[in-house]
């Protein structure tokens, strides 16, 4: 695996061209840490247990933030070791750190890098968020007696099929986890089929999110001052803006529309690209980064900022669910529901199938066949004030009805940490992921 390191370094350099965060502390990826991190290991245990949470990207980091809000009071004096795989995850995770906490990159999943990581930090427990099953990481923890759990766990049918094709690798990895806590009964069944011991079905941590009150209030204020109702294309992925432009072109575009559209791309490296695409289509664009006291008039508003989805959901009367119109599995609709923003979702929601289906059943979300129908549905909805208000209330009720996963998960973490839940016996026997 040493021979593959130049390929990984080259990939990181390419990604750093668009997101400079990928150029930061590259050696951490290989389990090499500078003295700037300070003392770790046994001496750190005196100030409380070192709890390691791995949150690969932005969504997992936000789920980890919800868990930490309950876990810190439950484990007084705990110190946090936070790892990530993406630059956006690491930037968001930096906001969660308190004095004594540590943040590094996830080690590359080789025995050597994993070994250096575990020997350096010696966590009391490891918490992997959602889908992050790494065979060498799990095997290394098992060999050193570090209990490793999978929290807020989900596994869709497509991923289960992939795990079954590589059962010689995946089944020992799932089986060596100390505990797995699933988001839904469907996830639990698929995780058991993959070889995991599912200790509970706690729901989705993200339902316990408390939207930023200041952002929500600002969004609502701007919405109230806008003469047209606002429709949002939320967390759009590559190709979906083109679908949206095509849908608009069928009925005319620009300021003559009765609806103000707002687009927020999922990835920050695409902000400039999406703006150029909209302007090339003849639309005027007002970017969030240039707004003063209020959004500037334009055919389309572009949300080119990070960490402000609550503001955008507060500003919108309804949102199209990004990632659900291209075959990408959909983004998470839970934050929209918590903000009282009804969602229109496309056919591709396999990443969050149960939440999407339940939202549709509760009337908090509407399912459509594609982008053209989504645009028409959203515009009709935001122009129908009584119906929009009814769906807004249903979204809030749907969000409130599914809370409680954070406390259940935090109590389960404490149970594993203090030996109330056993680490399964047996050999890990895991190899590296290619």
Describe the protein in words:
The protein starts with a helix and ends in a 17-residue tail after the last helix. α10 links the parallel β8 (230-236) and β9. Helices cover 42% and strands 15% of the residues. The chain contains 17 helices and 14 strands. The chain is an alpha/beta fold and 434 residues long. It has a seven-stranded parallel beta sheet with strand order 3-2-1-4-5-6-7, with helices on both faces. The chain has two domains: 2-203 and 404-417, Rossmann fold (3-Layer(aba) Sandwich), CATH 3.40.50; 213-401, 3-Layer(aba) Sandwich (Rossmann fold), CATH 3.40.50.2000. The protein is globular.
Task: Explain the layout of strands and helices.
Elements: H1 5-18, E1 50-54, H2 58-74, E2 79-84, H3 87-93, E3 102-105, H4 111-121, E4 125-129, H5 135-144, E5 148-153, H6 157-165, H7 167-175, E6 179-182, H8 185-193, E7 198-201, H9 213-225, E8 230-236, H10 240-249, E9 260-265, H11 271-280, E10 285-287, E11 300-302, H12 309-315, E12 318-321, H13 334-338, E13 343-345, H14 353-361, E14 365-367, H15 371-382, H16 385-401, H17 405-417
Features:
seven-stranded parallel β-sheet, Rossmann fold, disordered C terminus, globular, alpha/beta, 434 residues, 14 strands, 2 domains, 42% helix
CATH homology superfamily of the largest domain: 3-Deoxy-D-manno-octulosonic-acid transferase, N-terminal domain
Strand order of the largest sheet: 3-2-1-4-5-6-7
N-to-C span: 9 Å
CATH class of the largest domain: Alpha Beta
* Rg calc: 22 Å
The helix-and-strand class reads alpha/beta
């Amino acid at each position: 695996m040493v021979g593959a390191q130049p390929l990984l370094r080259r990939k990181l350099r390419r990604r750093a061209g668009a997101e400079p965060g990928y150029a930061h502390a590259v050696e951490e990826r290989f389990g090499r840490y500078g003295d700037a991190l300070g003392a770790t290991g046994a001496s750190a245990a005196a100030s409380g247990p070192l709890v390691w949470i791995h949150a690969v990207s932005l969504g997992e980091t936000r789920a980890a933030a919800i868990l930490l809000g309950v876990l810190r009071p439950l484990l007084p004096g705990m110190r946090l070791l936070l790892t990530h795989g993406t630059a956006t995850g690491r930037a968001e995770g930096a906001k969660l750190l308190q004095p004594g906490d540590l943040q590094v990159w996830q080690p590359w999943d080789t025995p050597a890098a994993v070994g250096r990581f575990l020997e350096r930090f010696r966590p009391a427990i490891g918490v992997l968020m959602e889908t992050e099953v790494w065979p060498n990481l799990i095997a290394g923890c098992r060999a050193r007696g570090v209990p490793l759990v999978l929290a807020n766990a989900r596994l869709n049918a497509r991923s289960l099929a992939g795990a079954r094709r590589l059962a010689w690798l995946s089944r020992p990895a799932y089986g060596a986890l100390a505990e797995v806590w699933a988001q839904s009964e469907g996830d639990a069944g698929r995780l058991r089929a993959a070889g995991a011991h599912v200790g509970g079905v706690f729901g989705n941590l993200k339902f316990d999110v408390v939207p930023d009150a200041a952002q929500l209030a600002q969004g609502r204020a701007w919405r109230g001052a806008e003469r047209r109702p606002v429709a949002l294309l939320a967390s759009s992925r590559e190709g979906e803006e083109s679908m949206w432009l095509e849908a608009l072109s069928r009925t005319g575009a620009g300021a003559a529309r009765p609806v103000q559209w707002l687009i927020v791309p999922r990835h920050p490296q695409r902000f400039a690209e999406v703006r150029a695409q909209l302007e090339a289509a003849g639309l005027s664009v007002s970017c969030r980064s240039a707004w003063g006291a209020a959004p500037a008039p334009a055919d389309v508003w572009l949300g080119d900022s990070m960490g402000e989805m609550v503001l955008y959901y507060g500003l919108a009367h309804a949102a199209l669910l990004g990632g659900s119109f291209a075959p990408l599995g959909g983004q998470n609709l839970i934050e929209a529901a918590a903000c009282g923003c009804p969602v229109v979702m496309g056919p591709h929601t396999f990443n969050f199938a149960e939440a999407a289906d339940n939202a549709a059943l509760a009337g908090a979300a509407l399912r459509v066949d594609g982008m053209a129908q989504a645009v028409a549905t959203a515009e009709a909805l935001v122009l129908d004030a009584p119906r929009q208000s009814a769906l807004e209330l249903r979204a809030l009720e749907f969000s409130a009805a599914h809370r409680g996963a954070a406390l259940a998960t935090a109590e389960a973490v404490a149970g594993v940490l203090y030996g109330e839940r056993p680490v399964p016996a047996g050999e890990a026997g895991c190899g590296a992921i290619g």
